[in-house]
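One example copied in:
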Amino acid sequence: MKGLVCVLSLTLSYLSFAQKNVFIDILPVVGSTPLQIGTNHINDVGTGFKLDHFDYYLSNLHVIHDGGQDLDLSDTVFLVEPTNHVLYLGYLNVQNIEQINFGVGIPESMNTISSPTAVDITTWPVNHPLSFQDPSMYWGWSSGYMHMIIGGWADSDGNGDAATTESYFELHNLGNNNYMSINLPIVQSNSYPDQIDIHVNCHVDQWVRGVNLLTCGVKHGTAGLNADVMQNIGSYVVFDQSPNAGTITPSPNAGQVYYSADAWSLQLFWKDIVNAGNAELIDASGRIIFMFSPKHSWGSTTLTDLESGIYVLNMYDTSMKLIHSLKVIQQ
């Protein structure tokens, strides 16, 4: 019996070590500058623009790992937004991730355009990516979901400030034919013994490359510029990794984070955190449900009426470098 207990102990220890919290951070950038909504940027032909919104769906995810094994996560859909671009994939039995394959948009099997397996939007829980969004990602049963939406103002007078009185543009892109697939070799970051981070850039300027933002106006549809924008994913480098992606690691000696949970509340604690910037609590679908800025190197915050489930607390320093990531289980 002692021998059996020893074998079981070693097996459980190996399984625990094999599993990792896996995150994908898809940072939106213009050139090499992180995108900020409401801030002036310059596109590939020198036109100044300021975005009001930029959102897209990521689906049909496959994680290729440990010598070509395919971890199928295709039943998960993420909504990626400028302030919500860290995707939590789960506590997965992987060690080395070699590639991620995913689709941009909503696949035909989930879209209401023609699929008999699609679900009416009103039946999704309010916090689900396929439920109602603001701004809307849905154009009705017969047109389906918008794979990507982007809109804002172009600098028509050339003064360097794309004001709200200048050329407004919108590209809201629909249609099963505009669903695009990506196979992206990656280098992972081993942030902690039980955590893998995948850092990816999304080049917004390349996604709308070839579009005259000054004259395109407002277009919702499946053809013309709407199709061209989605085809840019295959024609240009819209998604890639920076050369130092694999060396991005949390700051050392960054104090501690921990939590306490019961049926009524969740308390998040931190201590000895130097240069703390922002913190976020992410649910299992990758959605940021709570953000706060620690004002001291130690402290706590309490959340009530939080649904039961698994969450992740990420804490960043003032330069937005990840310094802590903690799995949180709410009862």
In short: The longest strand covers residues 48-65.
